[in-house]
Design a protein that fits this description.
It is a single chain. This protein has helices at about 50-55, 90-105, 130-135, 145-170, 190-195, 210-220, 225-240, 245-255, 300-305, 330-345, 355-360, 425-440, 480-490, 495-505, 585-590, 595-610, 615, and strands spanning about 15-25, 35-45, 60, 65-70, 80-85, 185, 205, 265-270, 270-275, 320-325, 380-390, 395-400, 405-415, 445-455, 470, 480, 575, 580-585, 620. The protein has about 625 residues and is an alpha+beta fold. It folds into three domains: about 10-95 and about 315-470 and about 520-545, no CATH class; about 110-305, no CATH class; about 565-620, no CATH class. The chain has an eight-stranded mixed beta sheet, sandwiched between helices. A hairpin with a 6-residue loop joins strand 15 (about 470) and strand 16 (about 480). Helix 6 packs across helix 8. The longest helix is centred in the N-terminal third of the chain and has 29 residues, at about 145-170.
């Protein structure tokens, strides 16, 4: 058992109320019934050491409510996943996330050409004035030359769309692992331009790529792809990947690029339309863009400022990362509200200040002040909000718990305008780096906890990309390497992972583990949940009030075989009663042999099974 974090922590205590087992609907498999089964504790207070031990028994918190899935009974078994920070090996994609952020901070264009996306078109090599010069066309240009220039410009626009699509794949907005169609931009004829739609007279080009993307995501190719495509459909439904929604995303990102001068880009009923921003349209319908002079001067500076009103190209940006103790911040709440509405499509009246406070601000963790004895990190132990600020603007907030043995990542919310930066992945890399740096101050602080991993949920697969990761055995609470557990998880949802590890140690699993299953996941697990957040979207806000007593399971029949193999001795369970702290053995005589005593012992036995004998003797089981 871990030593106390500090001398002051020894005077602190954990006080919990056992809420028992609950059934609820599942946010992962979207089953029609109440198939998600968890055991819950309401924590009035909890020490960082006790919460660390609870994490290592498969627990997790949502505000002050601490919950644990009943693994062998719930529809989607959730395995605690962690990574030893010092062993972390970033993948190529994770390194690209770092480089993307660095280029953005250096003032370079915000979206880059994704690696592996080949394009031999000449226009894709041009940016800024060189591109504009290549596609400029005078009003009197006709014939083959004019057609070639128009064709080049449409290729250029198609390239931009392709880059945005691939950026969304990398960020997890669009599923990876399937062949998506190439974007195509076509010229709008004069006849269609005269339609009685506002602004249609300035409509030059249009793309229907959003319809093609939506259709691809829903198309069943072959029988062996059914399971994968079912997960893709589920992801599409959750993220509203309909043609109008996709078109809005792509148009928004194209406008963020700020490199297509002379055009206005808008989404309309699933189509991405390109309009003349300044009516510079030739008789042939081609865009006329005046080439920008390369030499410096007042005219050049004026043009550049119009090109990107928010941030001039080439000017460096400043990123600040601030770590604050968990508290309510109006600016953070406004960002959270915008994120939930824009990214998760929550109804505005459902995103309230009170729900935000319960979910992400309130915490039962007792703060431990920094110490100079090498036991506590410089920031202390407890619950924190890590702010990401670019040029003075709050763009993301990571909600984390810093404990004696780990940094536990709980949730991340971010500004939808900065989706191209893959802030979920970037924040995870920053948090892993923070653990490495702070090992010098707190030797026991070694791990990065990513929350729950559900192998059957495609939105969770990205977590295993932070390797070499480990999963917690739901029976013996031993840590098992992910690559060891993966082959069996491919076959069954619920697996006693320590059995697999034992068999592999003896060499008896070699014949039953496919060679492909032993490989570490790379591209096939880069599918992040819809908000590209680590606890982006998988850590649900659990409302204890919503899980009514009508659905409460009898503790006697809850079958918590994952919690303990044998029942422990109840005599030393610590009980809180009317401000006093007593061992159960001190209360037994007061109850005598009564129905009340039998009921209490059933409750205590259920509680002891899920928290373990040692924690049951250390935490206070509150009876009021």
């Amino acid at each position: 058992m871990k030593s106390e974090a500090s001398s002051s922590n020894s005077r602190q205590e954990s006080v919990v109320v056992d809420c028992g087992s609950r059934r609820s609907s599942c946010g992962y498999c979207k089953s029609s019934g109440r198939t998600s089964i968890t055991h819950g504790l309401w924590a009035h207070s909890i020490t960082v050491n006790d919460y660390q031990d609870l994490l290592d028994r498969g627990w997790r918190r949502s505000g002050c409510f601490i919950y644990k899935p009943e693994m062998e009974r719930t529809c989607c078994p959730s395995y605690t996943i962690r990574l030893k920070a010092s062993d972390f090996v970033p993948s190529k994609e994770q390194l690209r996330v770092y480089k993307r952020m660095q280029r953005f901070l250096d003032g370079m264009p915000e979206l880059r050409k994704p690696m592996g996306h080949k394009d031999n078109r000449k226009t894709s090599e041009h940016t800024g004035s060189s591109v504009h010069h290549a596609i400029s066309n005078s009003a009197g240009t006709h014939g083959k030359e004019g057609e070639n220039k128009a064709e080049e410009f449409m290729h250029h626009l198609s390239d931009k769309l392709d880059k945005v699509v691939h950026a969304y794949i990398e960020s997890g907005e669009f599923p990876s692992g399937i062949q998506l169609p190439k974007a195509a931009v076509k010229k709008v004829s004069h006849a269609k331009r005269k339609l009685s739609v506002e602004g249609s007279e300035d409509l030059l080009y249009s793309s229907s790529i959003a319809f093609q993307l939506a259709a691809t995501l829903r198309r069943t190719k072959s029988a062996e792809d059914i399971q994968q495509l079912q997960m893709i459909r589920q992801s599409a439904e959750e993220n509203d990947l309909s043609p109008p929604s996709i078109a809005e995303k792509l148009a928004c990102s194209l406008n963020q690029l700020g490199t297509i001068s002379g055009l206005s880009i808008r989404a309309c009923n699933g189509h991405i339309n390109f309009y003349s921003a300044a009516n510079f349209v030739s008789s042939d319908g081609y865009v006329q863009v005046v080439a920008q002079p390369e030499e410096s001067g007042s005219a050049s500076k004026s043009s550049c400022s119009k090109k990107s009103s928010q941030h001039p190209q080439g000017q460096k940006r400043k990123l600040e990362i601030r770590l604050n103790r968990s508290s309510f911040d109006p600016e953070e709440y406004e960002l959270y509200r915008r994120y939930q509405i824009k990214v998760h499509n929550d109804a505005p009246d459902h995103v309230t200040e009170s729900s935000y406070r319960r979910f992400l601000v309130e915490t039962p963790l007792l703060f431990v002040s920094p110490s100079a004895d090498g036991m506590v990190s410089p920031c202390g132990f407890g619950s924190f909000h890590q702010q990401y600020i670019i040029d003075g603007k709050l763009v993301a907030v990571g909600v984390i718990d810093i404990l004696p043995g780990c940094l536990s990542s709980k949730y991340l919310f971010w500004d939808p305008d900065y989706a191209f930066l893959s802030l979920g992945k970037y924040s995870a890399l920053q948090e892993i780096g923070w653990v490495k740096e702070n090992q010098a101050y707190s030797a026991s602080l070694q791990y990065y906890y990513l929350g729950y991993y559900i192998h059957s949920c495609s939105k969770m697969r990205y977590k295993a990309a932070y390797h070499p990761s480990e999963l917690l055995c739901p029976l013996r609470y031993q840590w098992v390497a992910f690559h060891t557990a993966r082959p069996m998880l491919d076959k069954k949802k619920y697996v006693i992972l320590s059995d697999i590890a034992s068999l592999q140690d003896t060499g008896t699993t070699q014949s039953c583990i496919p060679e492909s299953g032993m490989e570490l996941l790379h591209d096939d697990i880069e599918l992040v949940d819809s908000n590209d957040v680590l606890m982006d979207d998988d850590e649900e806000m659990i409302e204890i009030e919503s899980e009514s007593s009508d659905d409460e399971l009898n503790p006697e029949t809850s079958g918590l075989v994952t919690a303990a193999i044998d029942d422990g001795d109840l005599t030393n369970v610590l009980i809180g009663l009317k401000g006093s702290r007593l061992r159960y053995k001190d209360l037994q005589q007061a109850f005598g042999f009564s129905n009340e005593r039998n009921y209490l012992e059933k409750q205590l036995r259920s509680y002891q099974r899920v928290v373990g004998v040692e924690l049951s003797e250390r935490m206070v089981y509150s009876l009021g």
